[in-house]
Design goal:
Blueprint: H1 4-11, E1 15-19, H2 23-34, E2 39-43, H3 46-56, E3 60-64, H4 72-82, E4 87-92, H5 97-106, E5 110-113, H6 118-134, H7 137-148, E6 155-160, E7 163-167, H8 169-175, H9 180-185, H10 209-214, E8 220-227, E9 230-240, E10 247-254, H11 261-265, E11 274-275, H12 278-290, E12 294-301, E13 304-315, E14 320-324, H13 326-335, E15 338-341, E16 348-358, E17 363-372, E18 391-396, E19 399-400, E20 405-410, E21 414-419, E22 431-440, E23 443-458, E24 463-470, H14 475-498
Helix pairs in contact: 1-6, 3-4, 4-5, 6-7
């Protein structure tokens, strides 16, 4: 066991910055480290600590992870930008895999569990001064990984390309061995248990599963893992190690208890049914949140498709909060809903009941969420909502319909009309004539064409009739011109919102 008096010989000329928002802990740390280091610098939060680090450039940084203003991980990122060789210790009372992964990305040297054990601290400091003496990034990072790997409850395994380097207890238990040496000696590959099925990670004749996942870091993969008569549903992610080419950590989250496997088998069943399992949906979103997975939000602003990446900020039973870009927020404000899409989800998620819209925090929150097997994301044609000053006239059997008619949206193939009354005797497949006056560059564009009624439905205040165009020669090209220019106009309108 390393003694503090032995460490004093190596640290006597070094300085340390200790960061914790607990006044008592800071004072105790000052007394302890004052016996070991030439200078002890104290900070109560990350913002203060960053300024002090840049001013004094201490040899070591020891910081709590949970703090106001700036947490320990954000502080570590900023310190690493300032000094790529920074020696950073993170203290945490929580067993959270996302903190491990983020600490790996930040290049943290050692993860210390609070309350910090003095023997572990002495050993960590001893390793730190040894690493500083060796000046070896490789040894530095290996020491960090060795210390914290078994601390995690999720299954973790480190690879150097396709070679196993390290695995934690959870992973070893899953594959049925007692040590990494046994794992390597028996050449056990967890991929042998992966079920070869579309939508799930598995090896192919051309490529092993570890090669595939390492080529797409941070992406979440679903895994159906069969051992004996047991089938487990896992989510796998590859996290490359910075400054260690070819090295990466694969994490496996076991989500078998969510009972989602049967939904994946139904992915190609494109009917309009809703998948109702809100508990499983929330739990799955929490897994994505813990893994820092990105999702996509889809909206339509007057028919213009708006898609941006988003991050799950929190997934609760009462509210799903996502962080996304300003333009997506404006599109959500217009539609009052959004659709979440991710390869990690068995189906798209419809989000309704807009409860939160905070532009300054880039946050949106929805009360109601549910799986849907079909969604507007699958829309095959571009549909736009025309400008307000358009006009449309509907002729049925050579007679003019005298009710109110407006265009709900229009595409190259069809138009959706909104009427205040349903024309008598009009049925599906019946042909009509539609006369539309649309505006292009403040000039009227007249399109007069035959159309066939494809579908009709009654809403609370009106009737919507979808007509399929029966164009004559030359008419379609005029509509192409209009829809293209209408899209450009809507883009300018959205950008105008962004610029204030």
């Amino acid at each position: 066991m390393i003694e503090f008096k032995d460490i004093k010989q190596e640290t006597g000329e070094l300085s340390v910055l200790f960061v914790d928002d607990n006044d008592s802990l800071r004072q105790n740390a000052a007394k302890l480290f004052g016996k070991l280091f030439k200078e002890v610098i104290l900070a109560a939060d990350g913002v203060e600590a960053l300024a002090l680090y840049k001013k004094h450039n201490p040899a070591l940084l020891i910081t709590d992870i949970k703090m106001l203003k700036m947490d320990g991980l954000e502080l570590s990122r900023k310190v690493r930008q300032h000094n790529p060789d920074a020696m950073i210790f993170i203290m945490s009372a929580y067993d959270e895999k996302e903190n491990l992964m983020e600490a790996i990305r930040c290049g943290v040297f050692r993860f210390l569990k609070k309350p910090v054990n003095l023997n572990e601290l002495a050993e960590a400091l001893g390793d730190a001064v040894t690493m500083m003496r060796q000046r070896g990034e490789r040894h530095l990072f290996d020491s960090f990984i060795e210390t914290i790997f078994h601390y995690q409850s999720a299954m973790l395994v480190m690879y150097e390309k396709s070679r196993v380097v390290l695995a934690n207890e959870s992973f070893l238990d899953h594959v049925g061995v007692s040590s990494v040496e046994e794992l390597i000696e028996k050449r056990i590959d967890i991929g042998r248990d992966f079920v070869e099925e579309d939508g799930f990670l598995h090896s192919t004749l051309e490529q092993s599963w570890i090669t595939l996942i390492s080529q797409t870091p941070h992406k979440l993969y679903h895994v159906k893992c069969k051992r004996g008569s047991s089938v487990r549903h896992l989510i796998a992610k590859y996290e490359p190690l910075p400054l260690k080419a070819g090295y990466g950590v694969v994490s496996f989250d076991d989500i078998t208890e969510l009972n989602l496997l049967h939904y994946f088998g139904a992915r190609e069943d494109q009917n309009d049914s809703i998948v109702e399992d809100n508990e499983a949906l929330i739990d799955l979103l929490r897994v994505l949140e813990r893994n820092g997975a990105k999702v996509e939000l889809h909206n339509y602003y007057k028919g213009l498709s708006i898609t941006n990446d988003a991050q799950i900020a929190s997934a609760g039973h009462d509210l799903l909060v996502l962080k996304t870009k300003y333009l997506q927020q404006k599109a959500i404000q217009y539609e009052q809903k959004s659709i979440v899409v991710s390869e990690a989800l068995p189906h798209a998620i419809m989000c309704e009941g807009l409860e939160r819209l905070l532009f300054e925090k880039q946050e949106v929150g929805f009360k109601n969420i549910f799986f849907v097997k079909t969604s507007p994301v699958m829309r095959k044609t571009i549909r736009v909502i025309p400008e307000e000053n358009h006009t449309v006239t509907l002729f049925i059997k050579e007679g003019k319909f005298h009710g109110e008619v407006r265009i709900a949206d229009i595409s190259l193939d069809a138009v959706r009309l909104r009427l205040n009354a349903l024309p008598a005797g009009l049925g599906e497949e019946d042909e009509v004539r539609i006369d539309m006056v649309l505006m292009v560059d403040e000039k009227p564009l007249i399109i007069n064409t035959k159309a066939r009624l494809f579908k009709k439905r009654e809403t609370r205040y009106s009737f919507e009739l979808l007509f399929e165009f029966l164009f004559e020669a030359g008419q379609r090209s005029e509509l192409v011109k209009y829809i293209t220019k209408r899209q450009m106009s809507l883009i300018r309108e959205l950008k105008g919102m962004q610029n204030g």
